[in-house]
Design goal:
about 300 residues; about 0% strand; 2 domains; mainly alpha; elongated
């Protein structure tokens, strides 16, 4: 049994080292297409490499100090799992605040259009009264329009930046009126703004209810960690886990608890509705942003 345990631990350690190396190294795909857009930012890559080093060093150190082979499993799970758990159980109001700001911007844009301005002029002038939560997004939109990028392409890029299905409703209304210069845009935007405000109200109510479940999950994890620390520091309680069978039982218990906690955290996490203005990343067709001058020709 002992030989089998050591052989399995060695195989898991080797496989873990290979997986951590590949995970930290990332992809070297030179293709600048859709797959490259899915790569992590540089700051996230640096954080991931630091986690890999900490997980690897902590796992080996924990194994040497405690003599528990299962440390090779527990330490990496803590290093990678705790940051995810903390992010998953935090209050997620940033997206709601941006939607509320988008509703305000849409209403102001509707009021400007009632003065008789064109869509492009109204978008450019909306930067002066843009809410703080989306001011940078609107500034980027206006910058693209002023640099002769077509308004349609600029609005689609704004949708990619906002990354929300509700924002796509506002942008779809603007896109339809840019391609079809018919009347009624101001009224349509006002109605859309009311719809977005109602959705913001509903999301805030749902988020307040989810906050209670997140607090319960955090307290549960804190109690589990405290109890685990007490058992680890008490030799009489930890002695049964030092045997090979105890190591296997401990690994099964840790994996089961991690799965349950992860499942509970995922239940309290907001799952965004899929966007309908998003470009299909599986497509091999790549189109560069067109300028307004190119569209005229």
């Amino acid at each position: 049994m002992t030989a089998l345990l050591w052989a399995g631990s060695g195989a898991l350690l080797f496989g873990g080292l290979v997986a951590l190396f590949v995970f930290a190294r990332g992809s070297d795909d030179p293709d600048p297409g859709p797959r490259r857009a899915l790569r992590l930012p540089r700051a996230a890559q640096e954080q991931r490499r630091a986690q890999v080093v900490l997980a690897l060093g902590g796992a080996v150190l924990g194994w040497l100090l405690s003599g528990y082979v299962v440390s090779l499993l527990i330490v990496p799970m803590l290093v990678f799992g705790l940051p995810w758990f903390l992010r998953a159980t935090m209050t997620q109001n940033q997206g709601i605040d941006r939607l509320e700001a988008l509703a305000e911007w849409t209403q102001r844009l509707s009021d400007v259009l009632l003065l008789g301005l064109g869509v492009e002029q109204a978008l450019v002038s909306s930067l002066r009264t843009a809410p703080a939560a989306i001011e940078a997004d609107i500034a980027e939109l206006v910058g693209r329009i002023q640099s002769r990028v077509s308004p349609e392409e600029a609005l689609r890029l704004l949708g990619d930046r906002l990354g929300d299905a509700t924002a796509d409703k506002v942008l779809a209304t603007l896109l339809l009126r840019i391609t079809d210069r018919g009347p009624g845009l101001a009224r349509a935007l006002a109605d859309t703004a009311d719809s977005v405000r109602e959705e913001v109200r509903q999301r805030r109510a749902i988020e307040a209810d989810r906050a209670k479940h997140r607090a319960t999950i955090r307290w549960l994890v804190l109690i589990l960690l405290a109890a685990s620390g007490f058992i680890a520091l008490n030799p009489s309680y930890a002695a049964p886990y030092a045997k090979p069978v105890g190591q296997i039982v401990l690994a099964v218990v840790v994996l089961t608890v991690a799965a349950v906690v992860g499942w509970m955290a995922s239940m309290a996490t907001h799952r965004p509705v899929p966007r309908f203005l998003e470009v299909d990343r599986r497509s091999r067709v790549r189109t560069a942003p067109r300028t307004a001058q190119e569209e005229e020709t």
